[in-house]
């Protein structure tokens, strides 16, 4: 928990700085194109995926500690801890798929502002 906590400090505060502080215009620069640009860059894909994995593993493991501390019935404890890991696994798989398969042109039609850019990229 302490090791993942240290890495999470770097990942989370780096994430907040790069998304909300560093861009010209600050938080107002954050839009679909900004995120699409980041997801087109392997560095930010891996940054976000690492943050996702660590936050869910750290968070689920931390919640496991709380459940084990407070839930007295063994069956309920097992069910809750299993539910935690299943939820974390589902979110990790879905989130990782989203980050690595994200395509800003998916479903774009001619009335979209992305149409010309997507036509040129096709
Ligand atoms: C800045 C980033 C973070 C740092 C530095 C950090 C650090 C820590 C540390 C050192 C512990 C262990 C405490 C102990 O041993 O008693 C802990 C526990 C925990 N963390 Fe984090 N964490 C961070 C982010 C997160 C995030 C994003 C989540 C949720 C997704 C989370 C959820 C938890 C939970 C549920 C516990 C268990 C609390 C307990 O045992 O009482 N943490 N955290």
From TrEMBL:
Q: Name the keywords, alphabetized.
A: Heme, Iron, Membrane, Metal-binding, Transmembrane, Transmembrane helix
Q: Where in the cell is it found?
A: Membrane
Q: Where are the transmembrane segments?
A: 45-67, 79-102
What the entry lists under InterPro entries is as follows: SQR/QFR_C/D, Succ_DH_cytb556, SuccDH_FuR_B_TM-su
Note the Pfam families from the entry. Answer: Sdh_cyt
Q: Which cofactor is essential here?
A: heme
Keyword Transmembrane attributed:
yes
Q: Does the keyword Transmembrane apply?
A: yes
Name the family.
Belongs to the cytochrome b560 family.
What is the protein name given in its UniProt record? Succinate dehydrogenase, hydrophobic membrane anchor protein
- Source species: Microbacterium marinilacus
Q: Which gene encodes it?
A: sdhD
């Amino acid at each position: 928990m302490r090791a993942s906590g240290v890495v999470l400090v770097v990942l989370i505060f780096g994430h907040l700085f790069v998304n909300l502080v560093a861009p010209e215009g600050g938080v107002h620069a954050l839009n679909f194109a900004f995120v699409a640009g980041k997801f087109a860059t392997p560095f930010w894909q891996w940054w976000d995926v690492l943050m996702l994995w660590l936050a869910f593993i750290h968070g689920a493991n931390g919640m496991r500690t709380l459940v084990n501390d407070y839930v007295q019935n063994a069956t309920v404890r097992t069910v809750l801890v299993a539910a935690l890991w299943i939820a974390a696994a589902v979110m990790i798989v879905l989130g990782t798929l989203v980050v690595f398969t994200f395509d800003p042109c998916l479903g774009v039609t001619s009335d979209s502002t992305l149409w010309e850019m997507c036509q040129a990229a096709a």
